[in-house]
Amino acid sequence: MDRAGIGRTTFYAHYFDKEDVLTTITEQLLETFTRQIAQTEARPRIVPSLELFHHVYHSQQRQFQLIMCGHAGERLWEALQTALCRAIEPALATFCAEKRTPPIPLAVVAQYLADTLLTLLRWWLAADMLYPPEQMEGIFQQLAMPGVWVIITGKRVGISTPV
User: What is the C-alpha end-to-end distance of the chain, expressed in Å?
Assistant: First the structure.
């Protein structure tokens, strides 16, 4: 509070404690990200990975890195995990509805994709966002999506397997 130039009275007029501040920041970040996902739903996508990478990249990067990489960020990671699963599972269902019943439950696939995306995002943050969002999106698509397309369609899509 001293470094920010905020008096104790002002702080406690708005927040109960540090946890309350983190909860507020978490809610604001999730609300912004959820709005971005809703605006891009017109495009048929299973995972809003590019939107997530852009959101992180264009937000206040240093502040976001500090929040997400510290112990206090675990609550935000969990909330982001839940939000991603809620966005991914219905998108998977839309793609599967016309094709066939997948051999793996869609809730499991959604969990896998959300976990994979968040693991890649954590690495990217720790690496000081070494690559632009579009390149990270491409990396995610190459690593995670071929197997998902096999589950959805029953066919391999455009990736050759090494012998």
Answer: 60
Place of tokens 């017109």: 42
Q: Indicate the pTM of the whole model.
A: 0.73
For the chain, the domain total comes to 1
CATH number at residue 38: 1.10.357
Q: What is the pLDDT along the chain (163 residues), one digit of tens a residue?
A: 677 777 777 777 777 777 777 667 667 766 766 666 666 555 557 888 888 888 788 875 566 666 665 555 777 778 888 888 988 898 888 877 666 778 889 999 999 999 999 999 989 988 888 999 999 999 999 999 998 988 887 776 555 443 3
Handedness of CA 147, 148, 151, 156 (dihedral sign): negative
CB 159 within 8 A of CB 145: no
Residue with tokens 């809703």: 38
> Which tokens sit at 48?
């809003």
Whether 66 is covered by a domain: the verdict is: yes
Q: Is 71 left (phi over 0), alpha (psi -120 to 50) or beta?
A: alpha
CA distance 18 to 106: 37
Residue-wise burial string across 23-35, b where 16 or more C-beta atoms lie within 10 A, e elsewhere = bebbeebeeebee
